[in-house]
Hints:
Elements: H1 4-8, E1 19-26, E2 33-40, E3 53-56, E4 69-79, E5 88-95, H2 107-114, H3 117-122, E6 125-135, H4 168-181, E7 185-190, E8 196-205, H5 208-227, E9 230-232, E10 247-252, H6 254-257, H7 261-274, H8 276-282, E11 305-307, E12 314-316, H9 318-323, E13 328-330, H10 339-351
Parallel strand pairs: 1-5, 11-12
Antiparallel strand pairs: 1-2, 3-4, 4-5, 6-8, 6-9, 6-10, 7-8, 10-13, 12-13
Enzyme class: ligase
Keywords: ATP-binding, Ligase, Nucleotide-binding
GO cellular component, one term: cytoplasm
Amino acid sequence: MASLHDFVNLDLSVTTEKIIAEYIWVGGSGMDMRSKARTLPGPVTDPSELPKWNYDGSSTNQAPGDDSEVILYPRAIFKDPFRKGNNILVICDSYTPAGEPIPTNKRAKAAEIFSNPDVEAEEPWFGIEQEYTLLTMNKWPLGWPENGYPGPQGPYYCGNGADKAFGRDIVDAHYKACLYAGINISGINGEVMPGQWEFQVGPSVGISAGDEVWAARYILERITEIAGVVVSFDPKPVPGDWNGAGAHTNYSTKSMRGDGGIDVINAAIEKLEARHIEHIAAYGEGNERRLTGNHETASINQFTWGVANRGASVRIGRDTEKEGKGYFEDRRPASNMDPYVVTSMIAETTILPAA
């Protein structure tokens, strides 16, 4: 007897050249991901070959009801790990019918910054450490006693065992699905708070870092949907003596990676310090609950930096110090940050002349 699973896994290529394209965009909250699918006549490998589409912006808090049409512009293609075959995931950004980016479209400004000749010449690389927390449907961390708390932090970071690692099957499924999709996911690990995990994307160049993080977030949302688990990107999902969730952003430019790059790194950090307040304002909602000066964070009110210091705003690695070139890590972004905003702002601050 046929099952639902049989139909979900039908191989369309047996009977048709048509494919399914899942168009994905960021909704009105800036963190909710929306998507819908359409049929295309055949395989597509370049976003420029894809048609624009539209959606009802009044239902996503992105347009008024009397003028609700919002236009989707395809920007990046990934293989679809759910439908497989030639089917694709399409990362889009959103515009008015007149071609103006809507306020929640953060990709448009980022693309403008990354297309600046001075920025392009520096080939900015990003490695983003996306932390997240797995929750039950009752919105309590996975693996925690119902209405209670687990043992104190210590054994959970990179831990193994049924009493330390909660949700590993979901994490591994996401890891493999991202690799299948073509996302440059570089690793995973259990985090300090039980039920909290991290995946890393990068090194990715320029705007592609944002595209890949959003695609990886979408795939994670879909996998947790299948598993009946909720994923949270809240920077402090549980108050108290528990680590928050961040999106540490590792960054380098061509000049930083070359001989004498440590001087360029130091100069860049000084520029970041000068714009600390502006960066913090753009680094995620609720970040003040995380950046307290405790739990491997610096105070939100003070910019600090150091070598191998995970309690600083910006950390330089030992290898970078030793070699006199390399990269640094901005530890301030929250887990719910917009990667388009954070990556482009870092590039703008460190490469382009101050306004």
